[in-house]
Design brief:
The structure is a single chain. The chain is an alpha/beta fold. The protein folds into two domains: 11-192, Vaccinia Virus protein VP39 (Rossmann fold); 203-269, Helicase, Ruva Protein, domain 3. Helix content is 33%, strand content 19%. It is built from ten helices and nine strands. A seven-stranded mixed beta sheet has the order 4-3-2-5-6-9-7. Strands 1-8 form a two-stranded antiparallel sheet. α4 links the parallel β5 and β6. α1 crosses α2, α4 packs parallel to α6 and α7 packs across α10 (250-262). The model is unreliable at 1-5 and 7-14 (pLDDT under 50).
Length: 270
């Protein structure tokens, strides 16, 4: 691996470069890369994590938006001719183009400022992804893994857990980065279900159902679904309308969504 060339982290790209070799080894161990696997890294930066992965796989795809980092990345990984660099915005990248010969695995130290929309972008392509390992702001990981009744349980929790099993793996302190962020980070593993345990008839209706449910999280389901569900509907659903949304689990939201799809006047689609 060549000596890292100087590059100042750019705030607009949300760059915080991981430099703690112990943390890098732990992340690679969690990913457990193997030769022949199609692993895609989002935001490889200077290649600190990339090096640990491609040493096992011998080939790899990376998606990098900062064009000034690409020559540094290629120089640092010049020993690996099968490193394929895609200069692109991961938010707009079609990951399915890399899955022509089988599913992919996705990894990355995601910029905090786009982590949530990027996760939703990846969930929309979950059918071609075996698993995802990400470094994220700890609070985001806590939200992803939150269970019903937790204070951080919300729309992100429900929609992610509809698609995936979510595991919070370990915490990474600010001192492991340059520049050091102001918050702790954490590693999360998300494994898309090959067969979802609870299937929504319409993803569009489910997304809107969850969004409406949490639009005012201190209010009850009766209030948040006012004009959409009445007391008779809640009775049929066997759900207490006096509950707050954070008390419902994923199957409850799927049940509500599928019920709304059966109603003649489906106000949630309005």
């Amino acid at each position: 691996m060549s000596k890292t060339q100087p590059h100042k982290a750019r705030k607009r790209f949300g760059q915080n470069f991981l430099h703690d070799h112990g943390v890098i080894r732990n992340i690679v161990a969690c990913i457990a890369p193997k030769k022949g696997q199609r692993i895609v890294e989002i935001g490889p930066g200077k290649g600190a994590l990339t090096h640990g992965i491609i040493a096992a796989t011998e080939s790899m795809d990376v998606v990098e938006l900062d064009r000034d980092l690409i020559p540094i990345l290629k120089a640092n990984l010049s020993n690996y001719p099968d490193l394929r660099v895609h200069e692109a915005d991961a938010m707009k990248f079609d990951f399915s183009q890399l899955a022509s010969e089988g599913n992919i695995r996705v990894v990355g130290n995601l910029p905090y400022n786009i982590s949530t929309p990027l996760i939703f972008h990846l969930l929309s392509q979950a059918n071609i992804i075996d698993n995802m390992h990400f470094m994220l702001q700890k609070e985001v990981v806590d939200r992803l893994a939150a269970r019903p009744g937790d204070s951080l349980y919300g729309r992100l929790s429900v929609m992610t857990q509809y698609y995936c099993q979510v595991e919070s793996l370990f915490i990474v302190g600010p001192e492991s980065f340059d520049p050091a962020p102001k918050v702790d980070s954490a590693i999360v593993r998300m494994t898309p279900y090959r067969e979802k345990p609870y299937l929504a008839d319409s993803l569009e209706t489910l997304e809107r159902t969850v969004r409406l449910g949490f639009q005012q999280r201190r209010k009850t389901l009766r209030n948040n679904y006012k004009g959409i569900l009445n007391n008779d509907d809640f009775e049929i659903l066997e759900i207490d309308p006096g509950l707050r949304p954070e008390r419902l689990d994923v199957p409850d939201f799927v049940k509500i969504s599928n019920y709304l799809d059966t109603k003649e006047d489906n106000s949630v689609k309005a």
